[in-house]
Design brief:
By secondary structure, the chain is mainly β. Helices cover about 5% and strands about 50% of the residues. The chain contains 2 helices and 28 strands. The strands form 7 sheets. Strands 3, 5, 6, 9, 11 and 12 form a 6-stranded mixed β-sheet that branches. Strands 21, 23, 24, 26, 27 and 28 form a 6-stranded mixed β-sheet that branches. The radius of gyration is 27 Å and the shape is elongated.
Length: about 350
């Protein structure tokens, strides 16, 4: 099998586009030199799909795989289609595993189904074929599909599903357990589908590579799952499957508190002198921006210098008193996923 998992790295947003974009990038790798495709045929070019249903299209692939390895006799194939138009939430769809039903490995026919989800609303074109199995059952990323310019299908998707998530507490403290309430709703009505929906809920590796444990929502489309303190440091996900990809998914890192400490290297200097202000952000390991803010008037805090948190979690920003007297400062850390915005205690530097 020539497959590679997708690794997601965004927080608190739907990540379907992330998976698909990664797949398109990876698909630029060299095709499998052993795989030759001569024909890909779909028995339908237009389908209508609603809600959580899928519509099966029969797929026939003719070609060959140049191998004498006994283990390759049961080789399966997957057909890849990419979006060419429309507004659905999926940018590609993939057939279920196609099994050889006629001929030889070197010159054979593979058949099976393409399960089309409502979230594929729009037009899709056959762009390639790859060796499977694909993702089993989560979306994997093909690194070597053999290009094939094939048929186009039109999908009319209605009552598209959406998954939302609400963590409790909303900002998860370090070292504390939490829960997430996942809800599946019909985007057309804003209401649940009224059935108990199978849903995969995973943490970390299964969110990228597949294999999330399956649960069922209530008839209200809602399920609440408890998580350990360690789970908050990893990707959390929920997804509803078609074979072999997901109909819809949601991925997130739980929001985390931002504890900021900052101390000026000097508390009294001549006007115009640069004063390094050193500080740290608990549990943060680099790259997020920080701002040194100065108080103007009674309520207006304005940024006067900026820097980034280092890998150590520490930072240095520079103050420069511009007049004589006590000047209030503070350090502000904007929201930097998964961290929420935070500020240090205010402090003063005396300009002399």
């Amino acid at each position: 099998m020539r497959m590679r998992p997708v690794v997601a790295a965004l927080a608190t947003v739907p990540l379907a586009g992330l998976f698909l974009g990664a797949a398109q990038t990876a698909a630029q790798a060299d095709p499998d030199p052993n795989l030759t495709i001569t024909q890909v045929a779909l028995d339908r070019t237009s389908v209508a799909v609603s809600g959580l249903n899928t519509y099966p299209i029969n797929v026939t692939v003719k070609g060959g795989y140049d191998s004498t390895e006994p283990g390759d006799q049961n080789l399966v194939l997957n057909v890849v289609l990419e979006r060419t138009g429309g507004t659905g939430t999926r940018n590609d769809i993939v057939s279920a595993d196609l099994k050889r039903t006629a001929g030889t490995l070197q010159n054979g026919t593979w058949t099976g189904r393409l399960n089309v989800a409502s979230t594929a609303n729009g037009t899709f074109k056959v762009t390639g074929v790859m060796t499977g199995p694909y993702g089993g059952p989560d979306p994997g990323t093909p690194v070597d599909p053999t290009p094939y310019s094939g048929q186009t299908i039109t999908v009319k998707g209605t009552n598209l599903p959406k998954i939302t998530a609400a963590a409790n507490p909303r900002v998860v403290p370090f070292g504390k357990p939490y829960s997430i309430t996942w809800a599946v709703t019909n985007t057309a009505t804003g209401k649940p589908y009224g059935s108990r929906i199978p849903i995969g809920l995973g943490v970390d590796v299964p969110c990228a590579e597949g294999g999330s444990p399956l649960y069922r929502t209530g008839t209200n489309g809602v399920i609440t799952k408890s998580y350990t303190a360690d789970d908050a440091g990893a990707l959390n996900c929920a997804h509803i499957y078609a074979d072999p990809y997901y109909i819809v998914g949601q991925w997130l890192f739980p929001a985390r508190p931002t504890a900021v400490a900052a101390v000026p290297s000097k508390t009294s200097v001549r006007v115009g002198t640069i004063v390094p202000v050193n500080g740290s952000v608990a549990h943060m390991t680099g790259s997020c921006p920080v701002q040194l803010q100065r108080l103007y008037g009674r309520t207006q805090w304005r940024a006067v210098s900026s820097a980034k948190v280092r890998q150590s979690g520490r930072f240095t920003v520079n103050a420069q008193p511009s007049y004589k007297g006590l000047i209030p400062y503070r350090v502000y850390v904007p929201a930097c996923e998964p961290f929420v915005a935070g500020v240090s205690k205010s402090f003063t530097i005396q300009g002399t």
